[in-house]
# Entry
Amino acid sequence: MSDGIQALIHATAEADGAHAPRTHETASRTSERGECDWKPAPLGDSVLQAVLDPIDTAIANHPRSLQKAIGPSELGTDSPHGLAMKLLQRKPLGEPETPWLPTQGTAVHAWLEHHLGGHRPDGDDEWQGEWEAEKRVRVGLLHSHTLLDPGSHEWHVTGSIDLWIPGMRATVDWKNVGQWTLKHAQTNGPSQQYLIQQSLYGWALEQAGTPPERQALVYIPRDARSLSDWWSYEWAYDPKPALWAWNRAQLTIDILQAIVDRDGMEMALAWASLLPGSASGHEWDTWEDETPAMTPFTPPTRKPPALDVPDRWTRLIHAVEPTYQTKNN
# Structure
């Protein structure tokens, strides 16, 4: 280092009191200098748009976005209206923008699948087998001669268990959630839709000869800073909620099929529009017979049915129960 540089450093240190103990006054004087004041003039968002275009395409073409058949996650809904519209193979109204939250959840699932799939416990539990991530299961067949697959008159309901731990005979489902959903679950328990989805997975395993003993919903907050922020809800497997949801779906199909056979598809849609929405008020989809809500967490407004639905069909509305009640099952 040159003599000139050394002299400059020495002089600066003496001027700032570098050789004296650092006092509160010195620290305050330093912090008052503030953050960097270099703010280049913005040039627009062309780079952002270049990045967003392929991301938008990837999300739109992801299998989760393209899925049309009803799955275990939807059979447990507490919205008879939403269930009927899905069974009629109607599509929810499109999102105003490309959904990003589900994509975050998909990414978290992929990371967990990569690191936990094939894990083998150490020690005494090693004989109990490897963990299976994204374990494919077949729940069953729903039947209808025109509403479902016109070629086979059947609908194969399948799904993927996020994690199967054979040594514990436990299913695990990851839920990547916001703070509202987490706090609501901690206060009131998981939603019916989440619980019955797991019961259906357990029932699928039971039909395959490996019934679970324990089921777990693991809530992963999207803003979690550490693993200690995770929270789980665990319970003993019970097939009765799955059977209730399955029978309700088949009953709804049978009613819709009867209406279509006698009075046509438009009458079936009119009947579906009379069914109640979510019992909990959590409407995630907006359908063609509804006006979208103007604010978040507000259910959409149902439009009047296009046709007058006769009594022979309206009396069947209450047959499609919105919620599973243990005292009745």
Observations:
- The chain has a mean pLDDT of 85.
- The first strand starts at residue 132 and ends at 143.
- The longest helix spans residues 240-263.
